[in-house]
Automatic annotation (TrEMBL):
It is a multi-pass membrane protein. It comes from Campylobacter aviculae. It comes from the Bacteria. It is found in: Cell membrane. This is Branched-chain amino acid ABC transporter permease. It holds the Pfam family BPD_transp_2. The chain crosses the membrane at residues 7-26, 32-50, 62-79, 103-125, 132-149, 169-189, 219-241, 253-278, 309-327.
């Protein structure tokens, strides 16, 4: 085992140790934040694959997360629960037939559902590029949300679903986050990952070099959607409920902010960006409490609802002014997955 591999193994061991010891140092509130951070790491590194590594400006991850969330919720709810929950219309026979008590199968169902949908969509969305691709994928995310509202026999409409088993804990969310990071990094620094970067840098030149750009973009799109679907399944099993309002464009905006702050193309940056965004929003929550006073230059400033996001936004603006390529740019923490010189055989 090389020195580089040992270095990466140390990071994995440290992450596992942190997950194992966290229940002894954090209360339920702190554990809830850690679970959210772990889920958002899975979502951010997968979203970074299509946006940062492959350079395709997709604005539709909220749609895939919603698909995964509803798929996991519907297969985990029992038939009796569905009959009790569906008040607007009777549940579809297909929905009633779907059930499993296995959390792993539910997550796989969530990921596969999002992956299949992304594969179908790829034939349409990759007919365009750039800003047009962003508009198409943005429309897809909105369509998924509206379909969830207007098909109550499948999703219970705007009333959503609750009573979902709370399977998600830090062992699940953190473990899947670690696996997601390893999978993404191995993909990024494989020959397929180098092809993705070539598409990002110059799609026409990559095509002229013999790279099947449509297939490469589709690979990135489906791989990203698969992990986003799993992340959606983890999220609903952490919250215990799901509704269409959870998956508006704001969800995509948060993920986009995370990967831009961390550095487009950097998986390490996506992880750090998640910790800063998700953790930072909670750390600044005290600013929204009316009772607290902040003493600045002997002037008492009463905190107010919304002040947290104002301060947080100002911090983000300052960071981006002084780090325009993000915190990590397109670099990683170490060279475990160091990009090697690609030989001609790799592209044959």
């Amino acid at each position: 085992m090389t020195k580089i591999k040992i270095s990466a193994l140390i990071y994995i061991i440290l992450a596992i140790a942190f997950i194992s010891l966290s229940p002894y140092f954090f209360d339920s509130y702190g554990m809830g934040i850690l679970n959210q951070i772990a889920i958002y790491i899975t979502l951010a590194v997968s979203y970074n694959l299509i946006n940062g590594v492959t350079g395709q400006f997709s604005l539709g991850p909220n749609g895939f997360i919603a698909i995964g969330a509803y798929a996991a919720a519907l297969v985990l709810l029992s038939t009796d629960q569905k009959n009790d929950l569906f008040n607007l219309e009777d549940p579809s026979p297909i929905i009633l037939a779907l059930h499993t008590n296995s959390f792993i199968l539910a997550l796989l169902m969530a990921g596969i559902s999002a992956c299949i949908l992304s594969l179908i969509l790829s034939f349409a969305v990759f007919r365009v590029r750039g800003d047009y691709l962003a508009i198409v994928t943005l429309g897809f995310g909105i369509i998924i949300q509206k379909l969830a509202i207007n098909f109550p026999s499948l999703t219970n409409g705007s009333m959503g679903l609750n009573g979902i088993p709370l399977f998600s804990n830090l062992y699940w969310t953190g473990g899947i986050a670690i696996i997601s990071v390893i999978l993404i990094l191995n993909l990024v620094y494989s020959k397929f990952g180098r092809a993705m970067k070539a598409v990002r840098d110059d799609e026409d030149a990559a095509s002229a070099m013999g790279i099947n750009t449509f297939w490469i973009k589709t690979l990135a799109f489906t791989a990203s959607a698969f992990l986003e679907g799993i992340g959606g399944g983890l999220l609903v099993c952490l919250l215990g409920s799901v509704s269409p309002e959870q998956f508006g464009f704001e969800f995509t905006f948060i993920l986009l902010t995370i990967i831009v702050l961390g550095g487009l193309g950097s998986t390490t940056g996506a992880i750090i960006g998640t910790i800063l965004i998700v953790g930072g929003r909670e750390w600044l929550r005290f600013l929204d409490e009316i009772q607290i006073k902040i003493d600045i230059l002997n002037i008492d400033i009463h905190s107010m609802p919304g002040l947290r996001m104002v301060v947080f936004s100002l911090i983000l603006i300052l960071v981006m002014l002084f780090a325009r390529r993000g915190i990590f740019g397109d670099k990683e923490l170490n060279s475990f997955f160091k990009n090697k010189q690609c030989s001609k055989k790799e592209y044959k």
